[in-house]
Amino acid sequence: VVGELYISGTNVGRGYLNNQELTAEKFFADPFRPNEKMYRTGDLARWLPDGNIEYLGRADHQVKIRGHRIELGEIEAQLLNCKGVKEAVVIDKADDKGAKYLCAYVVMEAEVNDTELRNYLGKALPDYMIPSFFVTLDQLPLTPNGKIDRKSLPNPEKVVNTNVKYAVPTNELEKKLAKIWEEVLGIPQIGIQDNFFSLGGHSLKAITLISRMNKECNVDIPLRLLFEAPTIQEISNYINGAKRENYVAIQPVPQLQYYPVSSVQKRMFILNEFDRSGTAYNLPGVMFLDGKLNYKRLEEAVRKLVDRHEALRTSFHSINGEPVQQIHQNVELQIAYSESTKDQVERIIAEFMQPFALEVAPLLRVGLVKLEAERHLFIMDMHHIISDGVSMQIMIQEIADLYKGKELPALGIQYKDFTIWHNHLLQSDAIKNQEAYWLDVFAEEIPVLNLPTDYSR
Questions:
Q1: Do 103 and 133 touch, CB atoms closer than 8 A?
Q2: Which CB contacts under 8 angstroms, 24+ apart, belong to 404-409?
């Protein structure tokens, strides 16, 4: 099990000279030996069966990707176990829309392509820990004191070495699909036999891709198909044999005082009633802004963002025992300004995350911390009931565009329009038939599995 490495014994010093704050952070009373100190190294490691300790990288190289907390050292350790890999380092990067992804840099002693590396890692790691891109280098850049210089690692070229020969689209449908795939994945010239997941695709991009293909091809493509048949050629064959269905766009609804909530929002509203002081459903977004910053332009960009998205002006209430959402025409959102130093960043972020009162809009907070003359920390925090990971990417991109003075196209629909469409769908015959099926399947007592958490239902 991966843990953080602590050192105790006579070799541990008394602390950092003239730095009481850092000393208090790193040096502790040893809980196993009275009157001795223990030092927190910040290294990640684990015991091996033979008693040795395996070093797995730094704790400050822990990142969060699509909601999952990841130890980059774990991925690096697995890569180094792969035959042909001499050196490896993994970092997190962000694309032009602000979406984070993992990129691995490897020095090889034998030729191994991306697909082989991805398949090897897939045997030991979950899919969200598989890097989207692998970059082969002659050597890893080093700092003057011999450590890996992560800041000097090059940006990955969005060309993937899959060892699959480029297969040209053979008809109009394959050309249309290739264009959609290239736009969603941000990769030029995708062949009809290239694997979606080998090209850096993941579950969030899969949902976006399916939505685009459904809309532009007038076919209902199930999400599971992409996992079973992850190439343009296979998807094209499915579309050719599928029944055509006219794509029906969600329609805007009339203005009301209150609107129903979606099933996901209802779940989060009820959970919030149990624990109003929790932050489990807070969605934080944090960025460093480098260069000269125009505060007024940033304030105007955030104001326009709130005006643009009704979800950012929505509050939630209980009427006659049912949760509803209310959209406000205007809400006040003040950016919280402060100044600090870079060694306080983690503390600032942690303190910024506070519970939301769902009945008070906006369910969004924005903070700006000046760290240096031309370096700021930008923090956004939203409640999950109005947002998700994809929404965060969209909003960060739109703030950047609005800051630059770009005019954004008007939104055809808002979340309330989806909610009403969604609730109508739940009353349809198709959903009623599914409900009847599952009620029949589970009509009998569900078998007890003798698990510690099991109980009679």
A1: yes
A2: 405/297, 408/308
